[in-house]
Description:
The structure holds two protein chains of two kinds.
Chain A: H1 5-8, H2 34-49, H3 58-68, E1 76-80, H4 84-90, H5 108-116, H6 120-133, H7 142-175, E2 178-183, E3 186-191, E4 200-204, E5 212-218, E6 224-228, H8 230-233, E7 238-242, E8 259-264, E9 275-279, E10 282-286, E11 291-292, E12 297-299, E13 303-310, H9 316-319, H10 330-363, E14 377-378, E15 385-386, H11 392-406, H12 413-432, E16 446-447, E17 459-465, E18 471-482, E19 485-487, E20 503-505, E21 508-512, H13 520-527, H14 532-546, E22 551-556, E23 562-568, H15 572-583, E24 586-591, E25 595-600, E26 603-613, E27 621-627, E28 633-639, H16 641-647, H17 654-669, E29 672-682, H18 684-699, H19 704-715, E30 720-731, H20 735-744, E31 748-752, H21 757-766, E32 775-779, H22 784-801, H23 805-810, E33 813-818, H24 819-825, H25 830-838, E34 843-847, H26 851-862, E35 868-873, H27 879-884, E36 887-891, H28 898-902, E37 905-907, H29 913-950, H30 963-973, H31 975-984, H32 990-995, H33 1001-1004, H34 1011-1035, H35 1043-1065, H36 1071-1091, H37 1102-1106, H38 1110-1137, H39 1141-1151, H40 1154-1165
Parallel strand pairs in A: 17-31, 17-35, 21-23, 31-34, 32-33, 33-34, 35-36, 36-37
Antiparallel strand pairs in A: 1-8, 2-3, 2-4, 4-13, 5-11, 5-13, 6-7, 6-12, 8-9, 9-10, 14-15, 16-37, 18-19, 18-30, 20-21, 22-23, 24-25, 25-26, 26-27, 27-28, 28-29, 29-30
Chain B: H1 2-17, H2 47-74, E1 77-81, H3 95-100, E2 106-112, E3 121-128, H4 135-138, H5 143-147, H6 176-179, E4 185-190, E5 193-195, E6 197-198, H7 205-211, H8 242-248, E7 256-263, E8 272-278, E9 289-295, H9 306-331, H10 343-346
Antiparallel strand pairs in B: 1-9, 2-8, 3-7, 3-9, 4-5, 4-8, 6-7
Helix pairs in contact in B: 2-9
Amino acid sequence: MDSNSQNEINESSQVHDFVHKSLSNRSISSSKNSGGHSLREVNFAELASKPVRHGSRGADSEGFSSSYKEMNDDDARIIHINDPVKSNEKFEFAGNSIRTGKYSILTFLPRNLFEQFHRVAYIYFLVIAILNQLPQLAVFGRGASIMPLAFVLVITAIKDLYEDYRRHRSDKIENNRLAWVLINDEFQHIRWKYIRVGEIIKVSANETLPCDMVLLSTSDSTGVAYVQTTNLDGESNLKTRYAKQETQVSHPESKMISGLIKCDKPNRNIYGFQANMVVDGKRISLGPSNIILRGCELKNTDWALGVAVYAGRETKAMLNNSGAPSKRSRLETLMNREIFFLSVFLVLLCVVVSVCHGLWLRRHKGDLDLMPFYRKSDYSGGKVEDYNYYGMGREILFVFLMSVIVFQIMIPISLYISMELVRVGQAFFMIRDDQMYDETTNSRFQCRALNINEDLGQIKYVFSDKTGTLTENKMEFQCASIGGVDYSNGKECVEDGHIGYPVQGGEQVLRPKMKVKVDQELLDLSKRKNLEEGRNVRDFFIALAACNTIVPLTVETQDPAVRLIDYQGESPDEQALVYAAAAYGFTLIERTSGHIVIDIQGERQRFDVLGLHEFDSDRKRMSVILGCPDKTIKLFVKGADTSMFHVIDKSINSNTIKATESHLQSYSSIGLRTLVVASKELSPILFEQWQSSYESASTALMGRAALLRKVATNIERHLSILGASAIEDKLQQGVPQAVKSLRKAGIKVWVLTGDKQETAVSIGYSSKLLTSKMTQIVINNNSKESCRKSLQDALLMCKKLGTDSLAAEINQLALIIDGTSLVYILDTDLEEQLFEFASRCNVVLCCRVAPLQKAGIVALIKNRTDDMTLAIGDGANDVSMIQMADVGIGISGQEGRQAVMASDFAMGQFRFLVPLLLVHGHWNYQRMSYMILYNFYRNAVFVLVLFWYVLFTSFTLTTAITDWSSVLYSIVYTGFPTVIVGILDKNLSRDSLLKYPQLYGAGQRQENYNKRLFWLTMLDTIWQSVAAFFVPLLSYWGSSVDGSSLGDLWTIAVVIMVNMHLAMDIIRWSWITHAAIWGSVISTFVSVMIIDLVPLLPGYWSFFNIAKTELFWMCVLGVVIGALLPRFVIKVVVQYCRPNDIQIAREMEKYGNSRRDSQLEMNQIFDPPSR
Amino acid sequence: MNSTTLSSSAAGIGSADSTPPRRNSKRPKYSRFSQQELPACKPILTPKWVIAAFLLIGAVFIPIGVFSLLASRDVVQIVNQYETDCIPEGSRTDKVGFIRGPQDKTCHRTLSIRRHMKQPIYVYYQLDNFYQNHRRYVKSRSDLQLRSPENEDETKSCQPEGTLNGTKAPIVPCGLIAWSLFNDTYEFSRNKRQLTVNKRGISWKSDRERKFGKNVYPKNFQNGTLQGGARLDSSKPLSEQEDLIVWMRTAALPTFRKLYGKIEVDLNPGDVIDVKLQNNYNTYSFNGKKKLVLSTTSWLGGKNDFIGIAYLSVGGLCFLLATIFTVIYFIKPRELGDPNYLSWNANPGDH
């Protein structure tokens, strides 16, 4: 369960078949390796669906049990090779045509509408629009009531339509690509979409695979094929896949085998595949290394034959074609709570109106008939009957429903749309920020989830992976300890290559792609074949060059005489080791499944690969059995020191072992990653024993992985030590500064790594996470009881040190805990204590943790506090943590793209976290929270103005403001500035935010959006609505003013007031802001004029008549000043008397002079500042 | 074989794997907009600005308030409430019965002028408690029909006054609003000499010209079972029926005035005006009040002190606030942008 060893040693998802033709012509196949795979499987697919015990060893047993699982006919699909008709007759397997397009012409309308109405807000909207269509309830004109909904629906539909059109187009291209398919015993060129399951397909080099196929045969005689899976998981290195020897043919046109494949139902796990194949009555099992997936490219292999097993939408690539998981931002959750309050308020208003209406009806019961403005009786039909009167009960109900319709915008539907727009805008700025562009990987910032932008401003905990996140994951071979001697002086770089052993490859010179610093002493030593030490060194380097799964590829260069060897492999550590070996003249130049060729200081030697034991997380080592040119058989093992010293024979070379151990200690103390290399010569008897047990294990149908592991453990014993290597994992640029900034911003940075404790601690120091001032508390335990005890001790100590903040400042605590201890703590009652203690620590380092434990630690914090968590990582082992945290960030770096695929945001470097959180997060949070509050206010103020008027119409929901104005209010009159301010306004400049990371605290303390602010805003809203309504009302009381004119006055007054309110709160006025605010005021005037130019509306010309009078303008001015005065006064008082940090920083930005600047610099340097 | 395969395909791999050339750089193009560095003004509420703003508001509002109040005080208006007084003593127990009965409803009121009233003097009738903004009422009209004779059948929205008793004959103008047209009439005389009331030009020009058709004539109007209000001269087109046009501009509030006409001579203090009014309109069924109003006008409109008082109080408040803030700024001076106020500087160790 040591995830890091995936990096230390090649964990490799590919599995080798070892064929040794001289010994046996039968194939020996190894299959599913449980360790590495199951980890990934669990990360990838099962995390969501199954309850996972964090910290347990569940992951391992998962994979383990699956290899025992006998395939059941019910959940398997059966494919007849080269017989598509029979394959498809019983079950209709999906054809190979794909449709990523969601709609056809016929289904577009219903499906698109159906999807759009998944949003509750839209349903609310629709219900209200439908209510309004009932004649008894028709409050608004039909057109006016439908328009906003229709507007939103049409816009979204057009967007969807365009996207879908593009998808259709690419589908069409994809479906019409051509592939060679075996039909009637000859290969024909047919379109991809006609490929059926069971057909045999021939793929040539550099072609894309049309569907998921089981490899039958390749141009390589041993059945190896190389594929590039960039399209699938983004990893650009080559992966090896194998055809079974039983199906291997030498020529694609030769006689085709027939058989039966029984495999899994289609699933989305791209690293898992289980099947049996029956060929010629023989049952062969197939694993993930025997299948090649749609979307991959065949590389380095002339041709490959495969049988289609999954086609079209059932291929793994298509099944994985879903977006990132959707999360909902904290702010939005809070907002929904407030929306609930608003709905209560809405219902309250409606109840008031309907009850009052009921009372009014009762009081005037006898008069209703004759009242000229009610006229209950209808005399027109000859006999007298009630006109539009349905009795008290129903009248009250209708009034209630009508008031819901009139007051509908109390629930700010436009807010959802504005938020979406604002987030798109914010995402645009984040993506475009050139301070978050990574030069080295040429990657921009990516926003994969669009709805949690504002969460970035509230992060309290950052959980970071180490390898590839804090560090570059570019491994560099630094030094070695060979035979107990430390060679770590080599610092001179090999420039001209004459030491670096260029290898003659035909006419051309082959040269490793990467240059490695060499130690001259060691280099000299390696050339002395005769010395004992020389032999030791040679064995060491042969082990480095051979004991791995690296594939060498030659690459052309500009200079035709020189070609570069590019080592492709999944583990950067292995690459570093192979490059190192090459630098010392042990150049790996060829690898097939049967043999490898190593150029040893100018002399090509061929080694037969007799056996290879994959890395697995239990053994934490890998081994290879080589048949050497001198006819000896040697076992080379490399692995993590802890696991290696168990299997090294202590009796031989005990001095060397001791020396190596001390070297390892010093290597890892300076942050280097270490591996121990050992070897043993195998006697023919031992080899044969091994071979037979290996064969039986690898053909076993059940528990194969466990059996293979046992075989490996048996042979990897009594080894003699060769030496140890140390690889430097370089810190990424700017990490210490970034960590410091984050810590200053009040963010707790936890590092969760699979690395060794020593490595983790040393990285902790170099990244400034740990300082010498800190008290380190280490928890390394092997039982629950001891864990309990250490936690209790730690808590006691914590209490002793004092709880007040001052003491915490002085006595900084760092907790270092390892994965084994976490096994006993997570998911048990100890969790609570761990949480209690860890939350007091300034730094927490978790080492040797498994992927699921990472998620468990995130959950530890997430489930117990309201604090926002952020997880950042780059590898597959971080996926679970990224998905668990509130915000998941993927580093698009070396380790493939799974982390990015699972993340909400992706970026190139760890240090971008600082601008992302402190600058963009801060802005996003502040903008979004202001926008939400403002939207609540804006809509409520309008509703209240309508409500006050209803009180003067005998509670009959007449609106003085025209229908069209009510509809346009939140879209045209006030909508635009909201969005602009939500996207563009910034309270502080980037420089200030970066200079004072503490300003980030505003988001963590939820200063910009909380209940108190909400209720204050609502109080303000009530006052403003009173001012906006009653000033015109009282000014025109008892005058001859008509409803439409007064309505226009209210419209104009409210819109100007609302826009001035916004203007008052805008911090930065750029020309866009000016345009938006004044533009929307002007557009309101224009719209009101246009509405009043329609002679068929009752309000014809009223605006022009009333705007002529002075009273109108005096009312507008009075409303705006009167309504905003309290807010202004409170704002000024708060800003002056109780300024918050942001206010001070704003003032400093404007008035801070140079004297103060210099003083601040001093404060920055001498921490803590003196007053 | 393997080595040849390797080299044969190496070119392809090389091109795929070699580091992307700089020209494909995805570095975002720099622009001040995309880096959010647009030039912007960052106003800050400094004491100076705040006090200046308050003083400015005060300085603007108080004069406006004073002028408004003066204007409102200048307006002379005489209000005479007559709905009860114009019912004979005996009939006051059954006002509705009286008003719907056939009796003569002439009523005499006298108004005495206390202050000089400069012409034009506006004659209004004021109704209280009449919800001209009632939902049933405001919707009961057909603007289509009012505009042109082709649309006279557009009476759907006018129920229950759309068509004549059970037939399909449309009522023009249809709807409750038109049907309930106010029909009290006033005749004024001073010292037994008739004062002419000019009833032309009391409605909006825009309404006369474009909303009410010049060739739309009243039809079947007030011919139903229940008579609501005034009858119309069916020989005059709607565009000339100014009382109707005024009435159809439904009032915003349940207490409203409507222009009845203008008296275009000055009235002097001591003048006694005799009003002979026909008390026809039924407001008794809903306890509505009727008032006759004579009023001069000012630049602000009618008599209404509210806006003046409001402006004066806001202006005064602003002066007060300006003083208070000046005091605050003196008592508790704070240098703007002083980093010592930052929370982490103020109390170290608390963040």
